Amino acid sequence: MVGLEPSVARGEYAREKYGIKIIPAYIEELHSQDRYDVIIMRHVLEHFSDPSHVLEKALENLKKNGLLVVIVPNIDCIGRYLFESKWTWVLPSHCNFFNPRSLRHIALRAGFDPVRLYQTPSPLWYPESFLRLFPGAERLRAGLYNKLTLLSLIPFTPIVMIGYLAGVSENLTLIARKT
């Protein structure tokens, strides 16, 4: 198994803890002769200023019939509708946002054949998004990162379920094939 991780510290952690061979680079910098069966980008694509280029590099590094798995936040999720600009995933580090149509489109444009696109719920950021609605709750929000428990998620379960049933969940997962 091979991982691509530009952070030296995180790469060393993955190597030590999981025995994964780590290439210390960004995908745009990858100049490997190796081709891979599967490339997984979990909450990565939204951080790039040119996600089309990133997908083209992924395509270039896959074997024929290789699979790409991309997981990104869904801009059309119920959490974003409810919390608007207070939605936690509206971060300065996110350069791009995707909905099912745009994610499928960018994959097709990069040369992939989308096999499956589905949504999954993720209630983890709901407590913080909720607290962002109240001015002066910064200290409480900061403490939340250390105290996030199942109990803090329970009040948001109905919202998560409605989003799931309505097809507006927080995560998009795309599985696409190189043909």
Give an account of the 3D structure:
With 179 residues, this protein is an alpha/beta fold. The chain has a single domain, classed as 3-Layer(aba) Sandwich (Rossmann fold). The chain is built from 8 helices and 6 strands. The chain has helices at residues 8-18, 51-60, 78-83, 100-110, 126-131, 138-147, 150-153, 157-166; strands at residues 2-4, 21-23, 36-42, 62-73, 112-120, 171-178. Strands 3-4-6-5 form a 4-stranded mixed sheet. A two-stranded parallel sheet has the order 1-2. β1, α1 and β2 (21-23) form a beta-alpha-beta unit. α2 (51-60) crosses α4. The longest helix has 11 residues, at 8-18. The two termini are 22 Å apart. The model has no long low-confidence stretch (mean pLDDT 89).
Keywords for this entry:
single chain, alpha/beta, four-stranded mixed β-sheet, two-stranded parallel sheet, 8 helices
Summarize the structure.
This protein is of the alpha/beta class. It has a single domain, classed as Vaccinia Virus protein VP39 (Rossmann fold, 3-Layer(aba) Sandwich). 38% of the residues lie in helices and 23% in strands.
Structural classification: alpha/beta
Question: Which series of helices and strands comes N to C?
Answer: EHEEHEHHEHHHHE
Strand arrangement in the largest pleated sheet: 3-4-6-5
- For the record, what is the CATH homologous superfamily label? Vaccinia Virus protein VP39
Enumerate how many helices there are, as a single number: 8
CATH fold descriptor: Rossmann fold
Instruction: Supply Rg.
Output: 18 Å
Going by CATH, the architecture would be: 3-Layer(aba) Sandwich
How many beta strands in the DSSP annotation?
6
